[in-house]
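It is worth pausing here to work through a concrete case rather than discussing structure prediction in the abstract. The textbook approach is simple: state the sequence, then state the predicted structure, then interpret. We follow exactly that order.
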Amino acid sequence: MSRALLISMALLAAPIAESAQQVAAPLGIEIGKATCTQAEAAAQVTTGIERGKSVWSGGQILVISNVSGFGVEGLQKVIVLCDAMDIVSVLTLQFPKEGTSGVRETVDQMDRKYKPLKRNLPFVGNAYAEWRAANAIAILSAPHLSFSFELSYWTPAARQLFAKWEDAEKARRDKKRAGSL
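Step two, the predicted structure:
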């Protein structure tokens, strides 16, 4: 089976929402609804899962490196970040870049499924794209010098919380730097 077909099966696993937009449920894990326990069960493995705690969400982080249970060819890693209520708020899929073809195939598949918001897809350079689903924002990030790219699904609340945390961290660092000069 082709890699593009298998990636599309992973990306197209979400049911159609009542509105015109589809619900984001990559790998069968519905963003903003599934729990970390359900996401871990979806991996169908007992090894290759690292656990941690997010400093900005207060929830659990699962880094799943044994992705064989998902049955998606090319999938290298899955990162699941839950909020303080144990609900999946960010899910990141990592794939090999394979030149520009893997990124472009993924962008085409996402364009068919979700509403495109932003895109920067140079032949050489950092690739970036965003889409809106009914329950999430999907972000593709493919750094130029990387051998892989990431497709992340964020709930709107998680994006806002992360932006606030990031601003507070920047202010803290700036204050510390100013105090040390």
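Step three, interpretation. The chain has four helices and eight strands. The CA atoms of residues 80 and 91 lie 5 Å apart.
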